[in-house]
């Protein structure tokens, strides 16, 4: 139905420091862009430049300045994981301007490939501060129903999807933001697949469901350090075109989708420590091709298709 889009922010620093990026997949906002609390082993970061309206309470302001990632923290430090305290920081906050916050920590939105009568190869970048679009080098293969995610300091992986001829691909492509260049990644998916869920932790990627011609409930982990795929326990339900996110509690949530017969309101979560899936409260409206966004105060399901109508509603 629609492809997942990543927004990439790049902040040029001095020649002696690394370029810094953050990713907010439409279904993955908090995991990368809003990430993360600094643990006791890390040096205290300088105050972050968050608009004043994001600091409704004095204690929120203090906690944000000392615990949240500032724009001066390097990309290496930004690989820290989210902790449950992220929600506590905003527990009593009465006014959060998430739109302004997004603009304050992310500088670019990158739109890759997609569909316009036919699959297209174009790639373009939107500067949130200048409010201008700029064309980037095209992806090598036009594709739809793929997933994309940031890794390393300035690179994005584009996994799987359907090629222009409708064939599902196992190809992984890499986009280098700094050099504005594309290359084929060293590894591939275990099979050609489209419409799957994708999220990440510090060391690799979690990939779930989707379709290889049959709708799947398979769940895998790709370890970036060794380029190997590891099979994890299957999801409880087969689904494609669903949302998969890492919550602020470091638990993975699979929400909505399509099982081949009907749109789903079913939701489940994977507890990494126990390696188990469990059901959670269903959506109020069954929906596929939705976007799922993680924010400090919860997980939001946006839009999608209910089998009859395209949706504009949002659930939390």
Short description:
By secondary structure, the protein is mainly beta.
Counted by DSSP, the helix tally is 4
> What is the CATH domain class of the largest domain?
Mainly Beta
H-E string:
EEHHHHEEEEEEEEEEEEEEEEEEEEEE
Q: N- to C-terminal separation?
A: 22 Å
Quaternary organisation of the protein chains: single chain
Would you count the extended β strands for me? 24
Determine Rg (CA atoms, Å): 19 Å
The secondary structure category is mainly beta
Number of domains: 2
Q: Percentage of helical residues?
A: under 10%
Strand content: 25-35%
Mean pLDDT: 74
CATH-derived topology of the largest domain: Neuraminidase
Account of the protein in words:
The protein has 2 domains: 34-103, no CATH class; 106-315, 6 Propeller (Neuraminidase). The chain is mainly beta. It is globular. Strands 9-10-12-13 form a 4-stranded antiparallel beta sheet, with no helix packed on it. A 4-stranded antiparallel beta sheet has the order 14-15-16-17, with no helix packed on it. It is built from 4 helices and 24 strands.
Spell out the blueprint of helices and strands.
Blueprint: E1 8-11, E2 20-23, H1 29-32, H2 58-67, H3 85-89, H4 98-105, E3 108-112, E4 115-116, E5 118-119, E6 123-127, E7 132-136, E8 143-144, E9 147-151, E10 155-159, E11 162-163, E12 172-176, E13 181-184, E14 197-200, E15 204-208, E16 219-223, E17 228-232, E18 243-246, E19 252-255, E20 267-271, E21 276-280, E22 291-295, E23 298-305, E24 310-315
Antiparallel strand pairs: 1-2, 3-6, 4-5, 6-7, 8-11, 9-10, 10-12, 12-13, 14-15, 15-16, 16-17, 18-19, 19-20, 20-21, 22-23, 23-24
């Amino acid at each position: 139905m629609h492809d997942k889009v990543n927004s990439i922010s790049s902040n040029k620093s001095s020649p002696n420091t690394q370029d810094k990026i953050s990713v907010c997949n439409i279904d993955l906002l908090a995991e990368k862009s809003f990430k993360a609390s600094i643990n006791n082993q890390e040096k205290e970061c300088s105050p972050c430049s968050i608009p004043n309206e994001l600091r409704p309470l004095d204690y929120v302001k203090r906690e944000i300045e000392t615990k949240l990632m500032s724009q001066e923290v390097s990309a290496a430090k930004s690989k820290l994981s989210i902790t449950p305290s992220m929600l506590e920081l905003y527990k009593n906050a009465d006014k959060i301007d998430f739109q302004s916050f997004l603009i304050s920590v992310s500088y670019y939105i990158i739109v890759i490939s997609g569909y316009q009568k036919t699959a297209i190869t174009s790639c373009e970048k939107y500067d949130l501060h200048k409010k201008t679009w700029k064309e980037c080098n095209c992806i090598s293969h036009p594709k739809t129903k793929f997933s994309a995610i940031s890794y390393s300091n300035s690179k994005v992986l584009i996994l799987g999807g359907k090629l222009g001829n409708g064939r599902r691909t196992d190809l992984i492509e890499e986009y280098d933001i700094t050099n504005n260049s594309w290359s084929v990644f060293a590894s591939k998916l275990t099979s050609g697949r489209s419409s799957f869920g994708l999220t990440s932790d510090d060391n690799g990627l979690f990939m779930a469901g989707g379709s290889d011609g049959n709708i799947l409930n398979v769940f895998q982990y790709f370890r970036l350090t060794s380029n190997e795929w590891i099979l994890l326990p299957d999801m409880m339900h087969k689904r494609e075109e669903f949302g998969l996110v890492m919550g602020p509690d470091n638990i993975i949530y699979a929400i909505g989708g399509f099982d081949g017969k009907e749109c789903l309101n079913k939701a489940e979560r994977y507890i990494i420590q126990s390696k188990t899936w469990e059901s959670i409260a269903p959506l109020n409206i069954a929906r596929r091709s939705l976007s799922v966004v993680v924010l400090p105060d919860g997980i939001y399901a946006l839009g999608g298709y209910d089998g009859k109508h395209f949706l504009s509603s949002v659930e939390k």
